[in-house]
Amino acid sequence: MRLWNFKKKTYPDYWEAYLLHFEKKEKKSLESSRFVALDCETTGFDFYIDRILSIGAVSIYKNEIAVVDSLEIYVKQTHFNPDSVPIHGILQHGKLEKCTEEDAMKQFLNYIEDAVLIAHHARFDIIMINAALNRMGLPKLKNKVIDTMDLYAKTRIKSNFIDQNAQYSLDEIAEAYAINLMDRHTASGDALIAALIFLKTTSLLKKSKSFKLKRYFLKSTMF
Fold first, then answer.
1. CATH number of the domain within which 163 lies
2. Report field, pTM of the whole predicted structure over 0.85
3. What is the rounded CA–CA span in Å between residue 175 and residue 196?
4. What span, in angstroms and rounded, lies between the C-alpha atoms of 149 and 76?
5. Are the CB atoms for 38 and 118 separated by under 8 Å?
6. pLDDT per residue over 31-74, tens digit each?
7. 172 lies in which domain range?
């Protein structure tokens, strides 16, 4: 009879430290939870070929943006797409201090912990991050995720605009809420815009007694 030796796959310490945040026994209400609004600037939109150039993130706690608790990372470009430079302005060999993709993911995981992640068109950002983790031999993110576009679309429905299939852009929503677009197309700037949209839309939606934020958690199968 052949004996099989099934060994548990081991992961680096920083991944194990990240997982520990999800093993806490105390349950938090959404009101007392930490949220992290994020954005990724990338070389393009191909999940297999393109790479993350920068990650910007800012935390939200008790309906306030904690600007001092923010993150901005620039990643060394192993894949360069000159066509995307006019959008994000990040050069392959510019003066910005950059780190490796692995170091970027370490910093990102350490920063987000078990926070609920907020992003505009969140599926793209999360898939790009999960692709980077996969290249490192790591599993996908475990955090809950909310798309600000879904929140904004719900406010439009309540205003009798019922086009549920509309794809509202970050610029369009920012303009509707008079949000400054000075740092648009920088990861940190877009993360801050997403945070502001999150606060604005949730404040409007909370006026309804039936509103439950957890209904907007994206399904993990989307990533």
1. 3.30.420.10
2. yes
3. 12
4. 30
5. yes
6. 779 999 999 999 888 889 999 999 999 999 999 999 899 999 99
7. 30-217
